[in-house]
Design a protein that fits this description.
Layout lengths: L3 H11 L22 H7 L2 E16 L6 E15 L5 E7 L19 E8 L4 E13 L2 E4 L4 H6 L4 H13 L4
Parallel strand pairs: 3-5
Antiparallel strand pairs: 1-2, 1-4, 2-3, 4-5, 5-6
Helix pairs in contact: 2-4
Length: 175
């Protein structure tokens, strides 16, 4: 079981994380880690600033010891940075097992928290956050959830500057 869960999590979290190509180079392969903020913006079909409204138990997948449980995180969209989201979107997150939280999944969402989310569509009406795609906004600064080159550069950055940089990249026309 120990070897199966990380493989399943990796498959769930990285499947299809490649997206539209960038200006100079094609999008990274699924599961690749963006090296800078412009690359992350280009590969994410949807980027929003949102507030967590509610977290509910979602679907289950698999059976026996390999079974995964998901949570449906309802996000009220405060600001659309890229894409055309509904006013409320549902983000699917693997539910943490006990007190163990993997770096790929990150900590559970909490009602009231504000995040910048880089996402793609998943099954049904749900969305999945891309690797390095969750940034908590607290007291005007950015707090990345998870490791990676983009996350390290964003830590402690002013919220308005971070959001402005995302919007500037999203407005660029692919060449």
């Amino acid at each position: 079981m120990r070897g199966v869960l990380p493989i399943l999590l990796g498959a769930v979290l990285t499947a299809g994380s490649g997206g539209a190509g960038g200006r100079v180079a094609a999008a990274p392969p699924p599961g690749a880690v963006a090296q800078d903020l412009p690359e992350l913006v280009r590969v994410a079909p949807l980027v929003v600033v949102g507030r967590v409204v509610e977290v509910r138990a979602g679907r289950g997948a698999g059976s026996g010891e390999g079974r995964l449980q998901f949570n449906d995180v309802h996000i009220s969209v405060e600001r659309r940075l890229k894409g055309d989201p509904a006013a409320t979107i549902v983000v699917e997150q693997v539910a943490p097992a006990g007190r163990v939280v993997s770096s790929e999944v990150g900590p559970p969402y909490k009602p009231g928290e504000r995040d910048v989310l880089f996402m793609r569509e998943a099954e049904g009406h749900r969305h999945v956050v891309l690797p390095q795609g969750r940034y908590r906004l607290e007291r005007g600064t950015v707090h990345p959830i998870g490791p990676g080159p983009v996350a390290e550069r964003a830590r402690g950055v002013d919220e308005a500057r971070f959001v402005g940089e995302i919007e500037a990249v999203a407005r660029e026309k692919p060449q």
